[in-house]
Amino acid sequence: CVHCSSASGHFVFFIIYATRSLIIQIHQFILQEDLNKKMLDGLLEFVKKSAASFWCRDDDWMSRMRASEIPTAALVLGVNMPDHTITFESMTELLHDSLTPFVASVQAKECTAMKQLMQKVLQRLMGTNVMVDEDEAEADLGFHTRDCPQKRVNCSLSALCDWYQSATKKSPVKSPRKRLSSSQSEFLQSPPVVVIFRDLEAFSPQVLQDFILVCSQYVHQLPLVFIFGIATSPSTIQRMLPHSVSSLLCIELFQSLSCTQHLATIIDKLFLTSKFHFKFSAKVLQVLVGIFLYHDFSVCNFIKGLQLSLLEHFHSQPLSVLCCHKQEALVHAQQLNDRDVERIQQLPSFMRYVEEQVPEEQVQLLTSSEHVKGVCQKLLKSLHKYHKNFYPALRCLHVLTSILPKYPLGKQIRELYVLCLEKKVWETQEYDSAMQLIRMLAKDELVTCLQKCVEILTFCKSKKLKKVGQQLQDITATCEKLDSKKIPTDSRKMMCTWLTACFVKSVVFCTQFPRTHLYPPESQPLYEVWYYSSSGTVRRHLNATPRTSIQTALSHPYCYLQNEALKNDSGIISSAAPDICIIYKLHLECGRLINLYDWLEAYATVATAAEGKDPSAIEGGKVDELKHARFIRAVSELEFLGFVKSTKQKTDHVARLTWGGC
Amino acid sequence: MSPAKRAAEVSGLYVRFVGDAEVLEHIVERREGAKVPKGSVQKLLALKEDQGPQECEGSVGEQDYLDALGTGATAGEEDGGGGGGGSSGPGGSAVFTFQTAKRSHKMAQMASEMARAPGRTVTFCSPGSPEAAGSPSRGSRGAAGETRTPPKVRPTGGRGRDVRSPAGESWASRLNSFLPQGRKVRFVSSTPHRLRKRLAAPNLRSESDSDLSPSHSEDEEDDDEEEREEKEELREAELTTPSKVAAAALYRTPAKKPKKGLEPSLVEEYFTAHASSKVTTSDRTLQKLQTPKLDQETLARLLDGKPSSYADEINQLNKEHEKFFSKWMLQLQLGFNVLLYGLGSKKPLLERFRTSRLLGVTHLVVNGFFPSITLKSILNSITVEVLEHQGSFRSPVEQMDFIMKSLRQDPSLQVYLVIHNIDGPMLRSEKTQQALGQLASLTNVHVLASIDHINAPLVWDQAKLSLFNWLWYETTTYLPYAEETSYENSLLVQQSGALALSSLTHVLRSLTPNARGIFRLLAEFQLESRDNPSYSGLSFQEFYQRCREAFLVNSDVTLRTQLTEFRDHKLIRTKKGADSVEYLLIPVDPATLTDFLEKEDAQ
């Protein structure tokens, strides 16, 4: 760390960072749980129900019809597969804890054939059991010795049935969770066997069909339940399985939250709140959202970006020690050392603040470190206050503008947020057009919006905003009152003026409100403490372009080697450049095949000239050894980098592997 | 620049230049791959010395294309490039240039241009554009021009010569190979007299056809020429009579250039160039070299101790990267893995990191560029060296499971994996990367790796990327890939065969005397027929016959078993001939084979 003054200082940042990333993880965890809670609850209910129906099978016609159907839950999870891991993990855990010890989760790439699939399922089911019944050491041991040779010999579902019978008999009412009531004892005696197919699309249809067919034969003895993880759409099942097979399944569909909704929730919970002090500048947020929307749809990667920027922020900005809860920050501010005070004085936002002060104050701020600390505390307080007001105001504005046609200020709140971070939102054209559209809103639409605003404002902590909320409520109340009253004809005119007055008031509110609260954070002194703004770093580390870098280094060595001999206008290279650059440049002139001899000769000409000799001196294949060696090295380096490869098409030729920039 | 000229330029007038050879080409259909007479390069060289400084503007075509491409390349460049020196890199258009169709001796010409002016510079921003020099006609045309009309105006400034050719222009002219090679050159000099010559490709064939009709008389052209001279004080340094015809004619009837319509897409361009299997390169081979092929040792000796001319800058660059060490360490500990990319060997950098930061902790160095590295060897070193497990495993999967389990059970054991070239040829397979990714995803395994191949990122899909959890670092070092490339079987390096020889002797030593005899038989036969260029191997039947005669085998089953063993050890190769007979061949060069037999005899 370049900036860190001491090891202890470094340590402090690290600790803070560590706690913070912990907070993020926890937040993330809660979110994940919350988001999928609905789906998981539904799933749990489904498994429970299907298992129950397995045992309380009446002799009625319906259940006999369903007898050979395997209950199946199809989970539509979205296209980013790596993100599903967390969902599946929490699901397995949940099933394990509350319903059944028999859960096997399989992935397509480990099951390319029926045999392997069967083997994996059996292994996981039986293995799971071993892990669960840890106190039954004897059975455990016996199981192991019996299991290993048996698996190879007898890898069939009938073996599984036998095992299931014995396992349920052996561990009677061995409740995985104690809080399950005794009324479920019958249920616990025969917990369902759940098989999770994590990535249904990747399975070979034939394997899947066979497995389902086989399983349907045993459905009377084994309470099987399938769970399909689907990335694309439920129609995949129809596409993969013929009717004869899919008719054996009793499918219920579960839809998870889409990843964009997931992202919106994360931004909402982590950024649009004054509780979490680390903030992104507009650019960084745009970069991360861009990576999400245009590259991977991965919420996990977004979180990774967040963690990285958090780390970078704490690593590169020593003043980030002040980026924490108000009380803590005030204490930290009191303890700042002289160097930190100097750093504060050098912050652009602080310098702007100093310039605005009266001369005596300016002198104080520039000389007395104690005074700076005091002012710093004051400024930190106001920074906290500013954020307390900022987010409710932002939400209000979003409520008002998100119903407008064509969404002049963006449909998602994050778009509006970026806009507000960048500049004074009320000075933009989009804002003007939005305000014009608000004026044209129907009364009841406007009133509904305003009521939502009132809700937001009354729940926030700031007194100032609460007051505004109160005023707004008065307006809406009057509006409604006027609406509900039977208006006698004579007083109608008067009512109209009342109504207009209310309307004007509310519109004035809409236009004035943001001006007082939605100043961009750059306007706040000390904002650098909270805001991370190096979008380039984030992009470089997460979304790198290795090939561009290599090609830049080859064609423009001056970008990396600041030597005057290499300095030139763009696109120009001198003969004094490193060998590999010259070789690269020469190879760009060639077509599909490159004649090595010509290449060598061309290189020798350049290299001789670079030494200040007359290049025409080389005649008839006389190339000195050193140049030959340098040529060989450069060519093998290009080969190593993947620009050329050897070919047998023609003697002493190499093939070019790149085409233009591709 | 005279006002008239400026006006002409603004209104889109172009002076077009068509060389005599091009006119000829235009009438008689051009033959592809016409060879340049030898020595033309040198001739050209001498001539070009006299030319005024010239510069061509980058044409609109390329820019348009890049605009259409969107910000992709350029935006990436903004952030991606220039990280090393802190300066912003050049635009994407400059980095990703477009290649033109092959011109013979293009490279030689480029080289001579670079060479001629060591202090000066040559631009390459649109490499291989149809600079006339590349085409066979250029030499003669230049010569004629030189003798006929010596330039009246010559730049006096000592400005360096910049040659840049218009890429977009070249595109247009490349589309139809029968179109004459266009040339668009703008003269710029620091003197007040600005020479400006614009030569563009005649885009409409019919138009130029009519213009080039033989009815134009010489006088007429001369008039035109004079007229123009009066107007613009412009001198064409290289004009010959026939080309004047064309130039003047075109000047008289300037046509609008339908540039956009003629621009082919990059894809079309690609397929046009790759459609024919015809190769238009010269037939010279390295045999012509008087210096013999160098072997690995000589190469190393020659290159050793020859510091680069930019040693200071390179050192400074590497010092910059070393500042990241503490950050890498921190990020590794926090669950990220670090991936280095950029030009130059990153091995020394990683080694310095290892020696300065990892000495006290468990770490494993994997040389991914090593040609015989396997996943099994990596896993073995983890199980044996790190986990100190002595058992063997039935399959890599089982071994992986064991490693994962052991490492999960012991979170206090922190393992650092330093992988030089995780994109190495032996590690590229899906399974290997999956296994490495699984290792990397463990919380107590920290991976620090480097990549060099330009297509290396293609090794990972979304799932693997999430396993690896990379943080990318650009570390351009400009250091030579000395160790990395020493394993590569470069075309230019004479293989000493030492490795092949030792492997041969080692394997054979473990075989039965009969088996050795069988191999010897094959080797001898191969040496006997080494002068036969069409020798494709010994057929199985014949080989069996010979073996029987030598009492080495008693049935063809025995021989087949033996051959399978050889094949498994890569001692022999079998090939199906045209008559579907199996041919056996030892894939070792004759010299090594002779050495081997001699060694065997000595024993």
Automatic annotation (TrEMBL), chain A:
Extract the signal peptide range. Answer: none
GO annotation, cellular component aspect:
DNA replication preinitiation complex; nuclear origin of replication recognition complex; nuclear pre-replicative complex
Q: Which residues form the Origin recognition complex subunit 3 insertion domain?
A: 334-485
Q: Which CDD domains match?
A: Orc3 (cd20704)
Which cell locations does it reside in?
A: Nucleus
Q: Where is the Origin recognition complex subunit 3 N-terminal domain?
A: 31-322
Q: Which GO terms describe its molecular function?
A: DNA replication origin binding
Could you give a single Gene Ontology term from the biological process aspect? DNA replication initiation
- The chain positions of domain Origin recognition complex subunit 3 winged helix C-terminal read 547-659
User: Which keywords annotate this record?
Assistant: DNA replication, DNA-binding, Nucleus, Phosphoprotein
Q: Highest taxon of the source?
A: Eukaryota
Sum up the protein's function in the record's words. Answer: Component of the origin recognition complex (ORC) that binds origins of replication. DNA-binding is ATP-dependent. The specific DNA sequences that define origins of replication have not been identified yet. ORC is required to assemble the pre-replication complex necessary to initiate DNA replication. Binds histone H3 and H4 trimethylation marks H3K9me3, H3K27me3 and H4K20me3.
Subunit: Component of ORC, a complex composed of at least 6 subunits: ORC1, ORC2, ORC3, ORC4, ORC5 and ORC6. ORC is regulated in a cell-cycle dependent manner. It is sequentially assembled at the exit from anaphase of mitosis and disassembled as cells enter S phase.
Family recorded in the similarity comment: Belongs to the ORC3 family.
- Name of protein: Origin recognition complex subunit 3
Q: Which organism is it from?
A: Scleropages formosus
From TrEMBL, chain B:
Domain Origin recognition complex subunit 2 winged-helix: from-to ranges: 532-591
- So which domain of life are we looking at? Eukaryota
InterPro entries for the chain: ORC2, RecA-like_ORC2, WHD_ORC2
Amino acid composition bias (Low complexity), ranges on this chain: 66-75, 126-145
List the residue ranges of the region (Disordered): 50-95, 114-262
Give a yes or no for keyword Nucleus in this entry: yes
Name a single GO cellular component.
nuclear origin of replication recognition complex
Q: Name one GO molecular function term.
A: DNA replication origin binding
Its subcellular locations are: Nucleus
**Which biological process terms from the Gene Ontology are attached to this UniProt entry?**
DNA replication
Q: Give the record's keywords alphabetically.
A: DNA replication, Nucleus
Q: Where is the composition biased (Acidic residues)?
A: 218-230
Short name of one Pfam family: WHD_ORC2
**Residue span, Origin recognition complex subunit 2 RecA-like domain:** 313-474
Question: Composition bias, kind Gly residues: at what positions?
Answer: 81-92
Describe its assembly: Component of the origin recognition complex (ORC).
> Which family is annotated?
Belongs to the ORC2 family.
Function in brief = Component of the origin recognition complex (ORC) that binds origins of replication. DNA-binding is ATP-dependent. ORC is required to assemble the pre-replication complex necessary to initiate DNA replication.
Q: What is this protein called?
A: Origin recognition complex subunit 2
State the organism of origin: Scleropages formosus (Asian bonytongue)
